[in-house]
Specification:
single chain, 246 residues, mainly alpha, 10 helices
Length: 246
């Protein structure tokens, strides 16, 4: 690949990132629920549990030290997994992906643009959540490298899973139900095996730098990246740009 071709592809990638950002911010409802809803939840939890001292129920943390990273994890999950899978399903059914495929934009640039957009939204969301949590006595993170690694690994892995799940969805109407596949579900049986599912390892990876002032959690990060690799493999093999025949 020539230097001019690489430069052209990078310009197309930047254009795609800008397009995703503009599309997101020009949808007020999406932006509202992405950023305002987690803040409202933290404020409600702060009013209810703000005075709860560290206890064994929260693994030695205070209630807000536990809930702030958990809400951050759920917010990243929503941006990088749920919304992505639903958006891709809608775009495919409406023929948008088919038209994108006919443009000079490379496939890798399209998905990398989506990933960059999701990471940008996630970073802003987590920063806002941590800032509001600070009002309820949650300390500012001290291990920024661990936090950055957890966010990057989580965003990449859940984006890969989002594309993989989108490849299994037959129509946009089924998307909201199908994306529940890896979302937190509480039961005695699933609580025993939740450490092998992607959501809890991501939550634990964020709890370290956000609440425990700990460094990189390699075990949980490894589980998360393994799910991301599996999702990427399924996405590469099964993702379709054209609408599925009914």
């Amino acid at each position: 690949m020539s230097y001019r071709s690489r430069r052209s592809d990078l310009a197309l990638l930047w254009h795609q990132v800008r397009y995703e950002q503009l599309s997101f911010w020009r949808n007020p409802q999406s932006a509202f629920f992405t950023f305002v809803f987690p803040v409202v939840i933290i404020m409600i939890f702060g009013a209810l549990f703000g005075g709860v001292n560290p206890s064994s129920y929260f693994d030695g943390l205070s209630a807000m030290q536990y809930y702030v990273p958990t809400i951050a994890a759920v917010s990243v999950l929503g941006s990088c997994y749920s919304q992505l899978a639903i958006v891709l399903s809608i775009r495919r059914q409406n023929g948008i992906l088919k038209r994108v495929r006919a443009t000079p934009l490379p496939a890798w640039a399209y998905f990398l643009g989506l990933l960059a957009h999701c990471v940008m939204v996630s970073v802003l969301d987590v920063a806002l959540i941590v800032g509001v949590g600070r009002l309820y006595g949650v300390p500012v993170p001290s291990h920024w490298l661990a936090l950055a690694a957890a966010l990057a690994g989580g965003a990449a892995s859940f984006c890969a899973l989002g594309v993989a799940v989108a490849s299994l969805i037959r129509n946009a109407e089924a998307a909201p139900a199908v994306v529940q596949l890896v979302l937190p579900i509480h039961s005695d049986l699933l609580n025993r095996i939740s450490g092998a599912l992607p959501v809890r390892p991501f939550n634990e990876a964020l709890l370290g730098p956000l609440a425990r002032h700990a460094g990189l959690d390699w075990r949980n990060l490894g589980v998360l990246l393994a799910w991301g690799a599996a999702g990427a493999l399924v996405a590469i093999r099964r993702f379709r740009w054209d609408p599925r025949p009914e």
